[in-house]
Write a structure and sequence with these properties.
Layout (H helix, E strand, L loop, with lengths): L2 H16 L6 E3 L12 E4 L4 E11 H4 L6 H19 L2 E11 L5 H17 L4 E8 L4 E11 L14 E5 L4 H11 L5 H12 L5 H7 L5 E6 L4 H12 L2 E5 L7 H9 L4 H7 L6 E5 L4 H10 L4 E8 L5 E4 L5 E3 L13
Parallel strand pairs: 4-5, 9-12
Antiparallel strand pairs: 1-2, 2-3, 3-6, 4-6, 7-10, 7-11, 8-10, 9-11, 12-13
Helix pairs in contact: 3-4, 3-7, 5-6, 5-9
Length: about 350
Amino acid sequence: MKIGELGEIGIIKIFQDEFSSLPHILLGLKTPTGIYEDTGVIDLTDGKVLIVTTDLIGRKTHMPPEMTPRQMGRKSVIVNISDLAAMGAKPLGLVMSIGLPSDLGVEDLKEIAIGMNLAAEEYDTCIFGGDTNMTDDVILAGTAIGIINKEELLTRHSAKPDDVVAVTGYLGSSAAGLQILMRNFAVSTEIKKKLTKYTLEPKAQLKIAMELSKIKGITASGDITDGLAWELHKIAAASGCGIKIEENKLPILEETKKVSKEFDLNLIDLIMHIGEDFELILTVNPKKWEKVQEICQKNNIKISQIGQVTDKKNVVSMIDKNGNVINLKRKGYDQFSTRS
């Protein structure tokens, strides 16, 4: 068997079987729900926890040809900051391991560095070290470190039946933008610029996540990078619950709807199984839902209730526009297999 047949989760489980842990690791591969979380968590014994995450992107596998070197550098930081946002953590800094082909232009390298630094500064942090090596492709691997009070930590494993299921922002915009770029769809300049900005220059929802963590009403949290369905399944598995959402409540830009209709794209597939929205998926204690809405409104962040947590363990479903209940498949973007 080759690793392409295992898929990403199968590969991770091999490491999970072989790795060990230590008592100060609160969340990691060997803890019961660690495999479902966006980061590792280390107990600092002073009421705080250290959040550590790493994410790697490659030019050939993660970046459309239209992405500039500066945008590449920026995204390599954003993917890591977004993981910290999912936990509600304040960034302390990043280190970057960088693989570079020998024929990469010096100006392109400078632009990558500028993009990294601008992204770090955008989220009030910095890049303070790393490593470089020669590779066949541009490989940008970041490790971000954050900190948060233990009692404010956001995870995926505390959702409860009747909790509100909500998302920030709009869904499917980045996936639609990627389709425009990769398939050269003939769309208006305005639509192309709007949707491809989500693809080429994503934003992490760090500020709002840090603020929401303080109200102690967020029962589960994640960032939507591998498709909404996959993120919902991770919350359901970690929390031992089910989730039911409604198609009519999904926040979708009119431009995304227009592109999917004109070019016969499966809009639900874009949202559920491709991802790269970098929005937050949250479950919220119903008693705190109004407060969450107030905080988001104050910060000019769109937040939408899309469903509810249920007591049907590991059942993730959607009521479609015709009123039919369909089970959402447990799949998302998997770089070791095909997009589905």
